[in-house]
Fold:
Amino acid sequence: MSDAPITVFGPDFPFAYDDWLAHPSRLGSLPVESHGAKVAVIGAGLSGLIAGYELMRLGAHPILFESGQLGGRLRSQPFEGASDIVAELGGMRFPVSGTGFYHYADLLGLQTKPFPNPMTDAAGSTVIDLEGETHYAESMADLPPLFHEVAAAYDQALEEGARFSDLKKAIRAKDRARIKEIWNPLVRDWDERTFYDFITTSPAFQRLSFRHREIPCWKSCGSMSPIVTVISVFSSVVWNVYRKVFGGGKPMAKAIGQRGPACNP
Ligand SMILES: Cc1cc2nc3c(=O)[nH]c(=O)nc-3n(C[C@H](O)[C@H](O)[C@H](O)COP(=O)(O)OP(=O)(O)OC[C@H]3O[C@@H](n4cnc5c(N)ncnc54)[C@H](O)[C@@H]3O)c2cc1C
Structure:
C-alpha cells in the first residue's frame, strides 16, 4: 500500500479540494470586470464562511445570509463564570486527514491539540461501562477477550461487506474510478440500511453470540446511523487521529468571519 496520507477525499465526495488549495492558481480567478460582483451565500456555517472567504480572495463581494448563528453546527458554548471551559454542542474533533480544515485552521493561526478519543494516548485511560460492568483500560491489551473478538469481527465485517482495505487504498491513491467501482454497489445495496443491520447480518458477527453483536451497536456512532455514512467517515479518516481546536470549534468560524482574506500572507 502506498505511503500517501489519507486525506478527506471521501467515497461520497471524491474531489481533491486540498489539491486545489495547494495549486499555484488556487481555486482559479475571476475576470477583472467581475471584481466586486455581489454573490449571495446562504448560511454562515463553516462552509458558507469559507465560501465567502474564497470569494473575497477572488475579488468578489460575498454577502452571507444566516438565519441562525455564526458557525452553524460548530457550537462551542462557554460556561458562565468559567470562560476558558467550553461545552461542544456540535463539531469538536477534527480528523488530521481533513487537510482542507487544517489549511484554514493554520491560516488563522489556531492552535490544536490531540483530541482525547477513547483508548488514545491523549485520553490516557478509558472507562467502558456496559450495563453496570465496568472496565478500566489504558490500551486494548487491558480489555477482556470479548472486546478483542468484537474488534476482529468488526474489521472482518468491513472487509467482507465493504471491501474496506480496497476502498481505503483507492482513497489514498485518489483513484476516483476505483472508488466508484467499490462505492456504487455499497450505496445500491446499503443506502437506507443501518449500522445495526450491517453488523447483525454480517457473517463475521453471525458466527458470534448476541452479546458480541450488541457491543458495537452501543458505540457512539449510533446503531441507527446509515451504514454508508459510517463507512464513508471511517474510510476517509485515520481512525482515532483527531485534534481539537483550543477554545472550541466555533472560534474558527468567528476568526474567518472577522479576519477575512487579509490574514492570508
Ligand atoms: C452534535 C454534532 C457533533 C458533531 N461532531 C463533529 C465532529 O466531532 N467533527 C466533525 O468534523 N464534524 C462534526 N459534526 C459535523 C459538523 O459540525 C458539520 O459537518 C459542519 O459544522 C457543517 O458545516 P456547514 O457549514 O456545512 O453546515 P452548517 O454548520 O449546518 O451551516 C449551515 C448554516 O446555514 C444556515 N441556513 C440554513 N438554511 C438557511 C437559509 N435558508 N437562510 C439562511 N441561513 C440558512 C444554518 O442556520 C446554518 O448556520 C457534528 C455535528 C453535530 C450536530
The beta strands are 38-42, 61-65, 76-79, 82-88, 94-95, 112-114, 126-130, 133-137, 242-245. The radius of gyration is 21 Å. The chain is about 40% helix and 15% strand. The mean pLDDT is 87.
